[in-house]
Amino acid sequence: MPQLNPNPWFFTMLISWLMLTLIVQPKVSSFTPTNPPSYKTPTLPKTSPWTWPWT
After folding, report:
1. How far apart are the first and last CA of the chain?
2. How far, in Å, CA of 55 to CA of 41, rounded?
3. What is the C-alpha radius of gyration for the chain, rounded to an integer number of angstroms?
């Protein structure tokens, strides 16, 4: 069963993880968000009871 032979796939996995951690991750981490979160206090909506016309 060739699926159980890790010889060709281990090198591929190792190279892909190295690319992810050494090249892609620092580039993505250096981006600044275009819309930073605002720290506003949430306001609760004003609720009023509904008056049903048929009661």
Report:
1. 75
2. 38
3. 28
* Residue-wise pLDDT tens digits, 1-55: 556 777 778 888 999 999 989 988 888 888 877 777 778 887 888 888 888 887 6
Amino acid 4 reads L
38-46 long-range contacts, Cβ below 8 Å, gap at least 24? none
Q: How far is CA 19 from CA 27, 45, 50, in A?
A: 11, 48, 59
Helical H segments across the chain, by residue range: 7-19, 25-29
